[in-house]
């Protein structure tokens, strides 16, 4: 999706940063966060940011506090897309949620809900450490608004209001549907202290129903939003990491939903998305 009205600075900044990226000024730095309440912000081992962001050559890299879960991965995928497209820099701070690091007072100051992911943007706040954004859907929208200056991954709200509305609809569909339902299924299948068959069935069935909605939407389309066959957007990034971990809730295959992931079908949505280098990279962060 491309905005009809592209600010000239965005074009020149994007070209400059694409050139930087082509010259190998890419990558992110990683700083582990353990359960120590003194949760750290600074990158460790003297590793600083290696390139600047899309908005200004002096801009600081963004900081992503995250872990290896679908809600974390959707944001790392988008940050990798922005890195590939604009040369945007970000630092990764792993928050091992199995140790309770997400409940440390210093983390709760970033997200009072005590959950990953959190994005901290030192460019948009004079205070330290910067502007913190929690809730994965809100982070995707924030990044799209401020850093996807060419409106490549989410339609422009003014210039293409209908497509933007579609992006919001499919974002909220995942955020309010697949995420919570599949998350609860995961709890009752994997973590509940007692076996409650009704709860497992309820959340697995609801997750399957929602995959069915994706399947209908993706019939004769490549992506969830946009005219004709659609355009890859944050709506796809938001749903993909959930669907790819279907095995966690004992949904053995996606064969029931051929437009989501076809039986030996190379044209289905999951394969199409997973072919993208930024998706592959984002799925490995942290
Ligand atoms: N609605 C939130 C959900 C975040 C969430 O549930 N994060 C999980 C990992 S996917 C987490 O941090 N769990 C640890 C905990 O519940 O303490 C979002 O989309 O960001």
Automatic annotation (TrEMBL):
Q: Which domain of life is it from?
A: Eukaryota
Q: Where is the composition biased (Polar residues)?
A: 28-37
Q: Which residues form the GST N-terminal domain?
A: 63-151
> What PROSITE patterns does the entry give?
GST_CTER, GST_NTER
Which CDD domains does the UniProt record give? GST_N_Ure2p_like
SUPFAM superfamilies of this UniProt entry? Answer: GST C-terminal domain-like, Thioredoxin-like
Which residues belong to any copy of the GST C-terminal domain?
Answer: 160-286
Location of region: Disordered: 22-58
- In Pfam terms, one family for this protein is GST_N
* UniProt family annotation: Belongs to the GST superfamily.
Q: What is this protein called?
A: Disulfide-bond oxidoreductase YfcG
- The organism is Trametes pubescens (White-rot fungus)
